[in-house]
Amino acid sequence: MNETFVHRQELADFLRTRRARLLPSDVGLLNGTRRRTPGLRREEVALLANIGVTWYTRLEQGAPINVSPSVLASIAKALQLTEHEREHLFLLAGQRPSEPTIAETEHVSEMLQRVLDGLDPNPAVIRGRRYDVLAWNRAAVALFGDYAAMDERERNVLWRFFMQPDTRCCLQRWDEVGPKLVAQFRAVAAKYLEHPCFQKLISELLEGSPEFAHYWSQHDVRNATDGFKYLYHPEAGEMTLEYTTLTVPDYPDMRMVIYTAAKGSPEEAKLQRVLDREQALAIPG
Q1: Which end of the chain is more exposed for a tag (fewer CB within 10 A), N or C?
Q2: What's 84's domain CATH number?
Q3: 221 lies in which domain range?
Q4: Predicted TM-score (pTM) of this structure
Q5: How many other C-beta atoms are found inside a 10 Å radius of the C-beta of residue 170?
Q6: For the chain, how many structural domains are there in total?
Q7: Alpha-carbon torsion 148, 151, 157, 161, what sign?
């Protein structure tokens, strides 16, 4: 079966099911006369999206017509699609997924926090799309510092790396890690470059850090997956930890980063020493 035909049929079915789940009252319309089928009528979707009824009907029927990104965005808004549904709509229509909406605040649920806490004694954090540390566990505090006592700037991975001199004392292989970090950030930031909070962070880093400015000018991009974290800790000395980066459900650019040491390794012993020291300091008296 022709791949284009399959996509058109999937698109048609997707639009029909999204339309069927909405009531007129959900979109500010009167319920009107009794309806034979649930959901909005095609003409109501067309009205809300400011497009022609005949054109929208053909789209729902799987007709071979081209759809512009702006029209898809209007349909997505009319059908009250979620971010994931918007992306799905664009992909089915053969278009580049729409620009993500950044107005929505990134939220770390209680369930995710419990996952972080359950990962102890492995340090773990949740990093937002702008590379802000949004949540952490006890082990992360012992290793990287008390995030709760930091201001918003200090909780930003890039700001702390490039703008705080004391951070360099705690990081090994700085010249190796720096360009990788910027390349990973650039891959995400490309989706949000026009947003003020990204513009502000990038401008401040470009102005305040010659190293960041140099790496940024290279235009390198790379995915953040697995690797090694090279550290120096005053209690344990030099440490090399493995890290794994996982995507957080519902937020495509939010990541959980987990740091681990191999069982029985010197690194595990060093990490445990750091955790024991933090726990001892936390006990009154």
Answers
A1: C
A2: 1.10.260.40
A3: 110-282
A4: 0.70
A5: 18
A6: 2
A7: negative
